[in-house]
Amino acid sequence: MYFSGGAELLFDKKKKHDVNLPAKETPWTIKDLLPWMKDNMLKERPELFIQGETVRPGILVLINDADWELMGELDYSIQNKDKIVFISTLHGG
Amino acid sequence: MAEEEIEHLKKLIAEKDKEIEKLKGATNIQKDFLTHVDENHVNDLPKKSKLSNPEISRYSRQLILPEIGIKGQVLLSNTSILIVGAGGLGCPAAIYLAAAGVGCLGLVDYDEVELSNLHRQILHSESKVNVKKCVSAAQACTELNSFVKCVPYHLQLNSSNALKIISQYDIVLDATDNVATRYLLNDACILAGKPLVSGSALRFEGQLTVYNYKGGPCYRCLYPKPPPPETVTNCSDGGVLGVIPGIIGSLQALEAIKIATGNECSYNQKLLMYDGLEGTFRTIRLRGRQSTCPICSDNPTITQLIDYEQFCGARASDKDKSVTVLNREDRLSAADYKSLLDKDHPHILVDVRQPVEVDICKLPTNSINIPLNDLHKSSSVNQLSSMINSMSEETTDQVPVICVCRRGNDSQLAVQKIKETLKHDNVAIQDIIGGLTSWAKTVDPEFPTY
To answer: In total, how many domains does chain B have?
Structure first.
């Protein structure tokens, strides 16, 4: 898992995280992953990352270097060794 | 003693004279150089069909690139490009586009040059402090290449002027610094049918995408909802290394040149993420144009420009604003704090800035540094409690706990946080109005501001 654009500030200020998800009967989807991240990884202020069941506006989710919209968004089934990236959009100039 | 004072005053007079000269110079530059929204400079330009000999010599190194050639150079010299924002992204973009020989370069910026801009906004210089940025940038571009027509607009782009200006140009560069203007530019480019080369930068990272080009997505396709204002960080608070917007702005110029010369553009429906600290460029495949997009789909719900500050819940500027959450009696002015120090009044000063900021400067007294976001931690609460305990053994008065930060915004939140977590009755928790900025302004002019 990889965070950038400032999203890493909510995750221990570390950009790269190797994550092993616990075994589960049904396949892990992004929809399952987000609350799991909130409980197990998020260090502070969850509202700056998650709103409702999805990420807050202004965060783009990438699955193996592709926009998650191309991959099924929340319903995407996570595969072994997938690279999931959360980018916060930058606005400065 | 008197002689010394005379010398000192003479020096002051000389400095002020210099300042007056500088300001005079600045006004002269600005008078004959500004553009009115309703003026149309761009369409007046004669279309070229060939290059002059000086142009051939000047552009020779790029003319011999088969991807450019005479044909590409003529196309470029007939292209008008609008850069919105003459700052960290706009400066490098403008100077490379001028150097490459675009026909007309529009430069929009409402702001004036400040000393804290110069580390990244490299077309401005020490002598241009207080000069309008659009004028300063236009001058620098004209000095480099007088073949290019530079059009400075000293204004804030808004819903009533955006379309008038944008419709005159072929390509638009988003080099702005705030969310509201980014949505405005996106919508205006859709309505006017112009490609938008969008860059952004913060800290050590940069992002780049080309919107509304050859059926690709627009900014709203990607970000239908604006980010909550509290999640948006500006360069003043987050910091930015000058080279980062330098790189992204240069890439914006490159994409614009490729579009103008009929080459493939690389970041249509793609996002470039540059991480300067790790030294990585990543290119991400983005979603296509969204059939539900309120502005660029076939059935748009937005057909004219809206109020973007209201839409984003944030102002169309990256200037810091001051907030007031505490009552006046919970606050000290910088001068009040100075007299407290002069009286040697016992108190606890809590500096709530980041350690890297405390390294830059701090008040001339013992303080403890607990960053705002660490105040709730039990280690912080314990540290503060034990300090209060030992101080209250020496006095029956309330122990003053005073919070300070850079501008007096975070310090107010700090007071609220400490009040929530601290279980002491015998304390008076206050903050310093305007923080260190006010201290420098009203108490100690020698104190640095950043």
So the answer is: 3
Expressed as residue numbers, the domain containing B358 is: 328-442
Question: Which residue type occupies B9?
Answer: L
The per-residue pLDDT for B1 is 66
pTM: 0.87
Where would I find the beta strands (DSSP E) of chain A? Answer: 2-4, 50-51, 54-55, 59-63, 66-67, 84-88
What residue ranges define each of the domains in chain A, with the CATH number in brackets? 2-88 (3.10.20.30)
Average pLDDT, chain A: 93
The answer for residues whose C-beta is within 8 angstroms of residue B152's C-beta and 6 or more apart is: B33, B34, B35, B107, B109, B132, B134, B135, B137, B138
CATH number at residue B430: 3.40.250.10
Which of B85, B202, B285 faces A90 most closely, judged by CB atoms? B202
Q: Which pair of tokens denotes residue B222?
A: 């990607």
CA dist B435 and B445 (Å) reads 14
pLDDT digits (tens, 9 = 90+) for B94-111: 999 999 999 999 999 999
Residues 52-91 (A) with a CB less than 8 A from some CB of B: 56-58, 60, 62, 65-67, 69-70, 85, 87-91
